[in-house]
């Protein structure tokens, strides 16, 4: 079966006429598996839910 490949633009987005595309991340196929470069997670901001859980757990 032939292998299908999606061609992405240098900014890792889909074709220009496809406005609702999800962001793509650089990936590499290696001997140990597929490696994907993910962005850093944003810093956690404490919420009311966090306070409720802390109160109920203590």
Overview of the molecule:
By secondary structure, the protein is of the alpha+beta class. The chain has a domain at 1-38. It is built from 1 helix and 2 strands; from the N terminus they run ββα. It has one helix at 48-57; strands spanning 27-30, 33-36. Strands 1-2 form a two-stranded antiparallel sheet. A hairpin with a 2-residue loop joins strand 1 and strand 2. It is elongated and about 50 Å long. The N and C termini lie far apart (58 Å). The mean pLDDT is 80.
Q: Which features would summarize this protein structure in a list?
A:
58 residues; alpha+beta; two-stranded antiparallel ribbon
Which secondary structure elements does this structure contain, and how are they paired or packed?
Blueprint lengths: L26 E4 L2 E4 L11 H10 L1
Antiparallel strand pairs: 1-2
């Amino acid at each position: 079966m032939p292998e299908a490949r999606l061609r992405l633009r240098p900014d890792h987005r889909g074709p220009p006429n496809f406005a609702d595309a999800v962001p793509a991340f650089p990936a590499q196929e290696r001997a140990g598996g597929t490696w994907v470069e993910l962005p850093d997670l944003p810093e956690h901001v404490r919420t009311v839910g966090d306070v409720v859980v802390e109160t109920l757990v203590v």
